[in-house]
Write a structure and sequence with these properties.
about 120 residues; mainly alpha; about 65% helix; about 0% strand
């Protein structure tokens, strides 16, 4: 998996990832998808700590899906995608799948969306 974010002076990569995710998701939603308490997301964003283990893997998966969505939708469209029910997911909301750790289904769906737009 390639992280395609640029690091700015004095800001860690994980802090930047969280900042990008916060453009369309709440800290609570990021926490749920990462399997951590909400305060941990705030610590990551502030650069006080870095995610480890499964939380790191889930955060990176979440960001990977976001990057794919940027190829297809506007920022507002991305927000609608995350929070709206989706027929391709049997009426489930993508954010609910992310919080359940079902990232493969999201990656596949985003791949199909990207393919249909190119």
């Amino acid at each position: 998996m390639t992280v395609t974010t640029t690091q700015t002076q004095g800001e860690g990569v994980y802090a930047r990832l969280v900042a990008e995710l916060r453009e369309v998701l709440t800290a609570r939603e990021i926490a749920g998808a990462s399997g951590v308490a909400e305060r941990q997301v705030h610590h990551w964003r502030a650069g006080e700590t870095r995610p480890r283990g499964e939380a790191r893997e889930r955060l990176l998966e979440l960001h990977y899906v976001l990057e794919g969505l940027r190829d297809v939708y506007t920022p507002e469209g991305i927000e609608v995608f995350w929070h709206g029910r989706n027929r391709d997911l049997e009426g489930r909301r993508p954010i609910d799948l992310a919080q359940a750790g079902e990232f493969e289904r999201l990656v596949e769906l985003v791949g199909r969306l990207r393919d249909s737009n190119f």
